[in-house]
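Section 3.1: Structural characterization of target chains.
Under the original work plan, the team committed to producing a structural model for every single-chain target entering the pipeline before any wet-lab resources were allocated. The record below documents one such target. The sequence was received from the expression subgroup and is listed exactly as submitted; it comprises 229 residues.
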Amino acid sequence: MIKARIVANAYDDYDLYKKDFNCFLDSTLEHMKSIDVFPLYWSTLVFKNWKDGINHVGFKELDEIFDELHQDVNASYYLASMGLYRTANMHLRSMIELSLQLLYFFEHPIELKKWKEGDFVIKHDKLKDYLKEYPDFNSQPLKSQVDTLIEQISKEWKHFSKHIHAESLNYFQTQKESDYTNSFKIADFGIWKCNFTKIINKINKLFLLFFSNQYKLFPSQNKDLLIIE
């Protein structure tokens, strides 16, 4: 009897969740129509265009990572549209980790093969050190630019990590005004939006520096999209 009641409630609750999410999506969309949506939506296109460009120069070994980066960004975008900001931020942390790994694996095919088989792990600090010491970045002022960019990206990684580890109540989903009022709040969306566009812009800048030679050979539609601010 209890089991039957729980099963019945499961379907009822699903309809309630669907209604809540649809209401939140509608409110988010109305807000987006009132702002400049270009930098927000442009951010969702970045990794797809990087994949197309890198494929064009004959390199496809990183396709799975590019696909997951695209998934992370779009998951963050749509989860935030439903008010699930903590989970949306978790995807941004994953996006940072995968982005730095992608750059490392571009020059390390053996480690990439091992990683795909689950036999290789590289930590965030090691990735930072590698990119700072990358030979193509040794000349000034490029090295200073890259070092600053890497530190900025790392700072964002640490910030998003706090959402995963819930280091204080500030990082709880349930502490957001939009959660306990069950309604869209411009302030909550604005904080996520600022973080979202900022970190993707920084990762894109790092990719432009790292893949500078390959970028010159990209089709014009990919090149033009990736340099828009």
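The chain has a mean pLDDT of 93.
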